[in-house]
Design brief:
The protein has 106 residues and is an all-alpha fold. The protein has helices at residues 2-22, 29-49, 55-76, 84-102. InterPro entries: EmrE-like (IPR037185), Small_drug/metabolite_transptr (IPR000390), Small_multidrug_res (IPR045324).
Length: 106
């Protein structure tokens, strides 16, 4: 269950990062509210996952899911630039996440 909490927490990190971008510096109400709700839920689920997972696994996985997810949202939804070096960077993050998962007991 800890891994499910962690994955959902990471996906919520993508939600709050996107909604923060849409909030225009917290000047738009709805995206600002979504940002804070998603942040609270993300932190809460991360906290629950840390009951069973080590900090050195949970936190890097959470930030990695968020980083790659934000990269994909930026690229696919916001039209941010895509080039081979940025794609390679995202692939390396995913490789690191896989290694982190494989190397964690349980």
């Amino acid at each position: 269950m800890a891994w499910i909490y962690l994955i959902v927490a990471g996906l919520l990190e993508v939600v709050w990062a996107y909604s923060m971008k849409q909030s225009a510096g917290f000047t738009r109400l709805i995206p600002s509210v979504i940002t804070f709700i998603a942040m609270a839920a993300s932190f809460g689920l991360l906290s629950l996952s840390m009951r069973a997972l080590p900090l050195g696994t949970a936190y890097p996985m959470w930030t990695g899911i968020g980083a790659v997810g934000a990269f994909l949202v930026g690229m696919m939804i916001l039209g941010e630039p895509v080039n081979n070096l940025r794609i390679l960077a995202a692939v390396l993050i995913v490789a690191g996440l896989i290694l982190m998962k494989v190397s964690t007991p349980g």
